[in-house]
Amino acid sequence: MRRRTPLSSPRRLTSVLALLASLSGPPALAQYRPPPMSESQRLVKEGESAQVSASAASASGDKKDAEEKYRKALGLYEQALAAEPGSITAAAGVGAVANALQDWTRTVERIKSVQAANPSELSLAYPLGVALFKLRRFPEAVPLLEQVSSADQAEHLIVHYYLASYYLFAQQGDAAVTRLRRYLTLRPAKLSANDHQIHELLGRAHVLRRDVAAARASFTQAQAGRPESASVQLGLASVLELEGKPAEARTLLEGVTTRFPQVAEPREKLARLYLASGELPRAEAQAVAVAKLGATPAAYLLLGDVRLAQKQAPAAEEAYRKVLELQPGLVLGQMAVGKALQAQGRHEEAIQFLEAAVRSGASSVELWASLGSVNRRAGRFQRAVEVHRRVVEMVPRQALGWMLLGADHFATGQWDQAIEDYGSALVAEPDHAGAKQWLARALAHRARDRSGAGRADDAVRDLRRAFDLDRSVLMARRLTAALMETRAYGDARKVMEQGATLPGATWREQLLLGYSRLGAGDAQAALEAFERSGKQTEEPDQQAEASVGAALAEVELGQVDAAVQRLTEVGPSRSAAGVAQANLPRVLVRRALSRLEAGDIEGADRDLDAVDKLGTGKRSDLAKLVLFARGLTRAESGRHAEASAALKKALTPAQPWAWPNTRALADAFALYKKGQVAAARKQLTAAAKKPMPGQPKWLVSMTGALHRREASLAYSAGNMKGAEKALKAALATEPEDAVLQHNLACVDWRKGKSADALATWRKLESSVAVASLNLGIDAQERRHEPAEAVDAWRRYLASGSGPRMAQVREWKERLQSLHGLAEPAGSSAATGATVEDTTP
């Protein structure tokens, strides 16, 4: 039997429906009761109420009531913080109220540990950062304020102002501009009346950035719509300084001090400008006026600086010590006293004073820098280096410490280390002008030492780098001298052509330019530079040096006579006399060789005699050159034995001024003059196997001379065949030579080829005077035509030059007398001097 499920009773159904209804309907809400407050929380709440009341009293102008309520709130917050030391709200309350009461130390003492435990909490970073800033504990304050500023909240507006003030103090113009602009963006409209202060600070920041236009615009905006402000005018004076207008800046400040006689800052700035321009009486007057306006540290610091500039170091010390009396521990005052002691030569006292300041707890970059520098000046170089390394550690991103270390090593001649230090300064600040200048000087000193040690190439490398860093006349001069020492005259010329155009260039730069151009082979440009050098000075000694340089250029230009005159009339300069004495013998030898080439044997001998009187000193090469020139003059004079001996002695051993084949060439010449043509040709052939630069043309000319001499000797001996062969060989190299053509015609005439000879002589009569002589001889001797002979000899005599002039005149007059031949109408008898006979 299947079991049936029993039905529920009516009462049970009713209860189930009631339960469903209760679940499906709205919930029943119980009354909320917050958990009971802790003692700390209760105190914080009471403190907040008291703080609100204090703020209201302050807003209404009741300062006394506001202070009482702030102190009540502070007490409540401190109790709350004591009850719960880690409470953020209690610590924030303490900081806010203590700052309102300007109790900055209390803020730092109470909430610093809480903030350290909660570094991201802005409600703690803000009051703590402000309190530290007010206590001038900037290294601690600035990171906190920068953290708050990054949140960019309007309630923290003042943080941007504080940071901008610090950045101005730290000379960080860009950072100050960023904060001030953000301040102007966030500040509420009701504070816009004070924007002039922000624009003035912006102007100061732009001055630090050396942005002249932006600085002027900011100061102008700060002044707009307001009564004239002395501080703004002070800023505009700074703009004028940046523009390179110190005189206008002084004029502006003179007006400001007249309109604002009781304001110290413009007077102080004006006094600094007077100091910078060397107007010490005016600077003193302003400094005294500043001191009368108020016995402030800044006033006595200024007065001390004036006294120090007036070389009154004791008075400066007195003023600086008053600075420390007014503000003990002021770093600027401590450094100033040290400076005054140092100026009195009291280095040890200065060191003790600054060391005492350090031991007392004073610590700043400026103080350590001053202490190290005083030690250096006192000769304590190791201590100076130790102290200045501390400066590097304090400001590793600045050039200051490295510059001071460089000065320490520079003072002891440690050039490698000094160069490394100044290089590090440039890494820190690539545009640091002082680092570039002193690095260049250190390089120049090392270059001097390297040059003295025979390392000329290393010296040149140092000086090239120095000149790149310091484009000054001095560096150009040093580099040019080093390059000339290594015979790099082309590079020396390039450097000095730049150096001669630099500010401060004088006659000496033109002198060096002349020598570099002379070494580079441009004698004409060198002469121009030497002449400019002489015109740029009125000192006789300096003009003499320029004149000697010009003489050397004239020698290269072939103006040897002018050069000799300059070198023999030097003037009062010992330096110029030394150069002239060293060069005059060489120049005289040069002129002797030139005269020898021109056929002036007597003139060449006179110059060589003058060299013998002057002497060649220890210059054996010059003595050998003089002997060589003597050998050539002896050869030209026909003193062949003396010539051969002199040439052999001059070229034994081989001389640096001679080519490897000079001996063969000299022997060929001597043999040529002696008439030993075959032997001369043999020597010439040997020399021609390895010709030196410039020799091929001379070898061709000498070969032609040998052919001529051979022809002359053969002609004189009646060997017409030999003469003809030699002349034709000479004509092969000089086919247009009229004299050779004439002489070959003479050979033809002697061989019976009269018609050919006459034709050639008639063609050459206008260019070779002796052709007329030969035409007359042919007419008289062969064709018996006296009238024609007289006419030919008349033309010969009219030329005014040629051999046997007197004899030809006698021939002509004799024929005229014998045959009754008169002179043509209007003609006059030619006159002429007898000259040496030559073989045609």
UniProtKB/TrEMBL annotation:
Domain of life: Bacteria
Biased composition (Polar residues): 828-840
Protein keywords: Repeat, Signal, TPR repeat
UniProt region (Disordered), positions on chain: 26-64, 820-840
Signal peptide: 1-30
Keyword match ATP-binding: no
First and last residues of every TPR repeat: 297-330, 365-398, 399-432
Ranges annotated as biased composition (Low complexity): 49-60
InterPro entries attached to this UniProt entry: TPR-like_helical_dom_sf, TPR_rpt, Ycf3
Protein name (record): Uncharacterized protein
Organism (species): Myxococcus stipitatus (strain DSM 14675 / JCM 12634 / Mx s8)
